[in-house]
From TrEMBL:
Name the record gives this protein: DUF2569 domain-containing protein
Record keywords: Membrane, Transmembrane, Transmembrane helix
Highest taxon of source: Bacteria
Source organism per UniProt: Frischella perrara
Coiled coil: none
A Pfam family it matches: DUF2569
InterPro entries (UniProt xref): DUF2569 (IPR019690)
Transmembrane segments: 12-38, 58-86, 98-123, 129-147
Length: 166
């Protein structure tokens, strides 16, 4: 008999990304809605959509709509990631890493746009962005190196993937 514990299953540190995925699915649309409602209350939306809008405001409108679309895409990524994660699909680690990289990229872009005041979205401090980036990098490294991740996400692997060792 083998009494050794194998590192597998959604346990240990792997619970934290699971919680992140669950919270992100309703959290991202709520964030988008909150920003839109706040902008409407402040009259920003009326200024953006008025015919006497300045050239600067048109850029702000374009960038803000682009940001809302990016957040929507990220929300759909999280839906797909949740499906993969909880079905323990072998594609989960790669998908999680892609979502985190997308998150890093849009965080940097959102921050740059907010510095130039070209966005409805804003970061109140640089530290918030840095914490977000560090969080993403830590989980990317974890998903690349973790034995638990390698042992947990093995379902639905095609036969040819077992032959080439992927």
């Amino acid at each position: 008999m083998n009494n050794k514990k194998t590192l597998e299953g959604i346990k240990g540190w792997l619970i934290i990304p699971g919680i992140e995925i669950i919270i992100s699915i309703p959290g991202l649309p709520f964030y988008i809605l909150t920003i839109i409602i706040s902008a409407n209350r402040l009259g920003i939306l009326n200024d953006l959509f008025s015919s006497s809008t300045s050239f600067y405001s048109i850029y702000t409108l374009i960038f803000s709509i682009s940001q809302i679309l990016c957040m929507g895409i990220l929300t759909f990524f999280y839906f797909y990631l949740a499906y993969l994660f909880f079905s323990k699909d072998y594609r989960t680690p790669k998908c999680y890493i892609v979502v985190q990289l997308f998150n890093i990229i849009i965080s940097i872009i959102f921050y740059i746009l907010s510095v130039f005041e070209l966005s409805l979205f804003s970061f109140s401090k640089e530290t918030e962005m840095i914490i977000s980036l560090v969080y993403s990098v830590i989980w990317i490294v974890y998903f690349i190196t973790s034995v638990r991740v390698k042992n947990t996400f093995i379902n639905n692997k095609p036969d040819y993937a077992n032959i080439v060792g992927k």
